[in-house]
Specification:
It is a single chain. The termini are far apart. The protein is an alpha+beta fold. The strands form 3 sheets. The chain has a 6-stranded antiparallel β-sheet. The protein has a 5-stranded mixed beta barrel with strand order 7-12-13-14-17. It has 9 helices and 17 strands. Helix 1 packs across helix 2 and helix 3 runs parallel beside helix 4. It folds into 2 domains: 222 residues, PmbA/TldD superfamily (PmbA/TldD fold); 215 residues, no CATH class. Helix content is 23%, strand content 37%.
Length: 443
């Protein structure tokens, strides 16, 4: 059974579970069913190291009765197993406390008519084909320079998934998606000093991937340029986050404006809607209906239709990231973000990354962030880092064993420019971000 064939069966299972829950006394019910299969092949030092095949499916049912909620799940779609899961969910609901905010999203918000977003682009790839591609990536990396002495391997992965959702409002929807990637990680060695780095490419359509050779060569280049790294004396210096790390800055924003953080009063951006939290040149849009994008979805995990909106306009926060539950807790309306954000687009403000590097005589260009030192409750920001000292627009030398310290609110307000080199390998699309002086602690 392939993913497309599974889709109708998933939808039938979700509908059946919801109908049964209603028959057994649930006032409201929802069910989500999923099926996923994939292949991942890794080579290391020219030899096949591992082959992993994945094939999973599941059905989760949630019921509401007298404002009490119960949930259960099963990997068995047989009628007896579905019946048992529904009864278990109802049993759990009988023991939970009533919650006046619990329940399905409003019926008039359901995505009964939704577009095909072209998210399903399967790759007919077998183990031998994947191994060949992985070897091409690793060989390109190892052959770039004799200082590339070791490899942590190259991996080629492909997966296809289908998901279906139904609820007692009469909504039922399903769609399929794919994800493909090539990655490579190598180690450079100069006089016994080792430096490691990696690169990867990710897309829904394998034709949009970088070639294995491009991935391997970029991994090697990144490892090589880290050779000769030394500490930087503690200073206040502008910091440039490349696109693949800049996405994380806006990920911290999402965490701070998520509905759960707001109603729990556990965020440094409590009640910040309508406030200026970025400079006026920062604009962030959410575009959930982009064809073929990694973060696209026609509806959220509650069946609510997704819609484009502006999250940050001229630096001002326009609203929060809400599910129906968090919205009710806050006296607001859901934003169609149950399950997360869908393609946050951070608009560029300059014409090139080089323009950002040349904005100051000295800039710290980050290449890697370490640790989990970000507290979205207090805003405290402290991350171990490696990167490069850039002087007058040119890399002077590699830097390691430093810490970038500050506060998220300070960091957001100090964003001075956003590059056009947008990284689209996730649900947040951002170019490089230049942040005015932050504390970089080193020697």
């Amino acid at each position: 059974m392939d993913v497309r064939e599974a889709q109708d069966g998933l939808l039938d299972a979700a509908r059946t579970a919801v109908a049964l829950a209603k028959e057994l006394g649930a006032e409201q019910a929802e069910a989500g069913a999923s099926f996923e299969e994939g292949l991942s092949v890794t080579v290391r030092l020219g030899e096949l190291e591992s082959v992993e095949r994945q094939r999973d499916r599941g059905l989760a049912i949630t019921v509401y009765r007298a404002q009490c909620k119960g949930s259960a799940s099963t990997a068995d779609f047989a009628p007896a197993a579905v019946d048992a899961a529904v009864r278990k969910a109802l049993s759990i609901a009988s023991f939970t406390a009533a919650d006046p905010y619990a329940g399905l999203a409003d019926a008039d918000l359901m995505a009964h008519d939704y577009p095909d977003l072209d998210l399903f682009r399967p790759w007919q790839l077998d183990v031998a084909g994947a191994e060949t591609l992985a070897l091409e990536a690793e060989n390109a990396a190892r052959g770039l320079d004799p200082q590339i002495r070791n490899s942590e391997g190259a991996t080629v992965s492909t997966s296809s998934a289908a998901q279906a959702y139904a609820n007692s409002h009469g909504f039922a929807g399903a769609y399929a998606s794919t994800s493909h990637s090539i990655s490579c990680s190598v180690v450079a060695d100069r006089e016994g000093i080792l430096e490691r780095d990696y690169w990867f490419t990710l897309a829904r359509d394998h034709a949009a991937l970088e070639t294995p050779e491009e991935v391997g060569r970029e991994a090697a280049r990144r490892a090589l340029r880290r050779l000769g790294a030394r500490q930087l004396a503690t200073c206040r210096i502008p910091v440039l986050y490349p696109a693949y790390l800049a996405r994380g800055l806006f990920g911290h924003l999402v965490a701070a404006i998520r509905g759960t953080s707001q109603y729990r009063k556990a965020t440094c951006l409590l009640g910040a809607s309508g406030q200026q939290i970025f400079p006026a040149h920062v604009t962030v849009d959410e575009e959930p209906l982009l064809a073929g994008a990694i973060g696209s979805a026609p509806y959220d995990s509650e069946g609510v239709r997704t819609r484009p909106r502006q999250l940050i306009a001229a630096g001002v926060l326009q609203g929060y990231v809400l599910s129906s539950y968090s919205a009710r807790r806050l006296g607001l309306a859901t934003t169609g973000n149950a399950g997360g954000v869908h393609n946050l687009i951070v608009k560029p403000t300059v014409n090139s990354e080089q323009e950002l590097l040349e904005a100051y005589p000295r800039v710290f260009l980050v290449s890697e962030l370490l640790g989990q030192g970000v507290n979205t409750v207090t805003g405290d920001y402290s991350r171990g880092a490696a990167g490069f000292l850039v002087e007058r627009g040119e890399i002077s030398h590699a830097v390691h064993e430093v810490t970038i310290a500050g506060n998220l609110l300070e960091l957001f307000k100090r964003i001075e420019g956003i590059g056009p080199d947008v990284d689209r390998r996730g649900s947040i699309h951002s170019g490089s971000v230049l942040v005015g002086e932050l504390t970089v602690a080193g020697a």
